[in-house]
Amino acid sequence: MTSQKTILRALAGETLPTPPIWMMRQAGRYLPEYKATRAQAGDFLSLCYNSELAAEVTLQPIRRYGFDAAIMFADILLLPQALGADLWFVTGEGPRLSTITDQSGLDKLKPVDEIDAVLSPVYETLRILRRELPSDTTLIGFAGAPWTVATYMIAGQGTPDQAPAHALKASDPAVFDALMATLTTGTIAYLSRQIEAGAEVVKIFDSWAGSLQGDDFAKYAVEPARQIAAALKAKYPHVPVIAFPRGAGEKYAGLHAAIGADCIALDDGVTPEWAAAHVQPGGCVQGNLASRHMVTGGDDLVRETRRVVDAFAHGPHIFNLGHGITPDAHPDNVQLMIDTVRGG
Ligand code: CP3
C-alpha cells in the first residue's frame, strides 16, 4: 500500500524528486506566535500538559511554512515525571529533576502501568492534531531514548559530558541497568499509547548517545532502541520508527539493521557525502543541515542546503537539521531553507 504522504513514502524507502521537510524544535522560541502562546500557558510544562495549546503550537509552524510533518509538542522528560520524578524548568538554564543515585531512588519510582495518569494530556494533544492537521501532513510522536533520559534522571539536570550517569554505570551497574530496563519498558508503553492516539511515526531521541564509548554504544544506545523498535513493530508493524543516536559519528554506519529502524536521523557531525555512502544504503536517512544556518542565513545557507539535498538525492531522504533550531534563529531563514529545498 503506497501512502500519499511524502514522509511515509520516504520512510518506506522511496526516493522522491524533492525530499520532504520538517525541523527539530520547529515549534519553539524563534517563532513570535510560540512565545505568545507560551506566555498564555504560563510555564513550559503547563504548555506541554495543556492539550489545546500544545496542539496549537504544534500547528503554528505547519501554518507558517507548510512542513511535511508535525512533531507533537511535548518533552522527553515527561516520562520520568510520569514515573514519579520531580521535574521543573529553570528559565535560561534548562530542566531540573530529583536525582536517582541508588536503589532507594529506584524504589520510589511508580510502576510503568501508571504513567498514563500523568501522560494522558499528551495523547489528547495527538488526537486533536489528527483532526486538525492538513491531510498531507504526517504526525510524529516521540520519546527520549533510555540512555539520554537516564542521564537527566541520574544527574538531575543536563550535563556536558554525562559524567554522573557514566559514574553510576561504573559504580552500581545493577541500579543503572534496572533504571535502563524501567525506561525501556516505560518508553515502549508510552510510544504504544501515542500510536494508539494517532502518531503515524515515532522518533527516539538519543541526544547523548555520542558519549557512549566502545562496547557501551552497542549496549546502551543500540540495544535499548532495538528492543523498543522490536516491541513496537510486533504490535504496530505499519508504524515507522526513526532513531536519532546523536553524535554516533562513524558508528552511524549499519545502524538501520542493528536497531531495526526505518530511518536513522543524522546530526551534522558527519558530512552528507559520507552518510550517503555509508548510512543511506541501509534505508531512509534524515538530516543534517547545521542549525547555525538558521541564525546566519545568506549564501552559506543556500549552498549548504543544496549540498545536503544533492548528497542524499539518490536514496530515501527526509530533509531536517542536524539538531534543534535555536531561539536566536530568524524565521525568514527557515523560509529560505524550504524554498531552496523545494525550488532547487
Ligand atoms: O521538536 C519539537 O518541536 C517538539 C517538541 C520537543 C521539545 N523538546 C520541546 C521543548 C522535543 C522533540 C524535545 C526533545 C527534547 N527535550 C530533547 C531531545 C532533543 C534534543 O534537543 O537533543 C531533550 C534533550 C529535551 C530536554 C530539554 N527540554 C532540555 C535540555 C530543554 C532546555 C533547553 C532549551 O532548549 O531550553 C528543554 C526545553 C524545551 N523543550 C523547549 C522546547 C520548545 C524550550 C522551552 C521553552 O519554551 O522555554
Strand order of the largest sheet: 1-4-5-6-7-8-9
What does the average pLDDT come to?
Answer: 97
Number of helices: 16
Morphology call: globular
Q: What compounds sit in this structure?
A: coproporphyrinogen III
Question: Cα distance, first to last residue?
Answer: 30 Å
Task: Describe what this molecule looks like in 3D.
By secondary structure, the protein is α/β, with parallel strands linked by helices. The chain has one domain (6-343): TIM Barrel, CATH 3.20.20.210. The protein is 50% helix and 12% strand. It contains 16 helices and 9 strands. It has helices at 6-11, 32-41, 44-49, 51-65, 78-82, 103-107, 116-132, 146-155, 163-171, 173-197, 215-235, 255-259, 272-278, 293-296, 298-311, 331-343, and strands at residues 69-71, 87-90, 94-97, 138-144, 201-206, 241-245, 263-265, 284-289, 317-321. It has a 7-stranded parallel beta sheet. The protein has a two-stranded antiparallel sheet with strand order 2-3. Helix 11 (215-235) links the parallel strand 5 and strand 6 (241-245). Helix 15 crosses helix 16. The mean pLDDT is 97. The structure holds coproporphyrinogen III. Its main location: cytoplasm. It catalyses: uroporphyrinogen III + 4 H(+) = coproporphyrinogen III + 4 CO2. It is found in: Cytoplasm.
